[in-house]
């Protein structure tokens, strides 16, 4: 069995690559929402939605944005948009995304959206972490080279973030360790 899993892990690979960053929206020590930006590899997900012409740079219009949302974004809802907010090990869930926008930046499609929490969560005194990963590893999410996860200006001055390799949530049969961010106040 180990030989079969090792062989499948060796030949499997992601089909979509996304670089992300996130801003944790807070009121003091309470997380209320997360705003994310995803940058796709060049040419993806245009092939999924069938749009023939895109601007060379800048935001897409409302009609094209609606096509992306319907055909390549909304279906990610049952997976909480691959966004994982854990509080004391318990997954938190997100309400319907808001402010969904699509633009072209340096030849790459970029999504920006906000995921409000179904129930805001107080961070003080709890183990809180946030990360973006696809357990199947069909999509490979890599944190942005800058601060991948940051706190907005509404956060208490006592709050901090710390990036780490999340050994407790490996993906793809335990062969890939996602990056995550601890949030403390």
UniProtKB/TrEMBL annotation:
Domain of life: Bacteria
Pfam families: DUF1007 (PF06226)
Xref: InterPro entries: DUF1007 (IPR010412)
Protein name: DUF1007 domain-containing protein
Species the sequence originates in: Paraburkholderia rhynchosiae
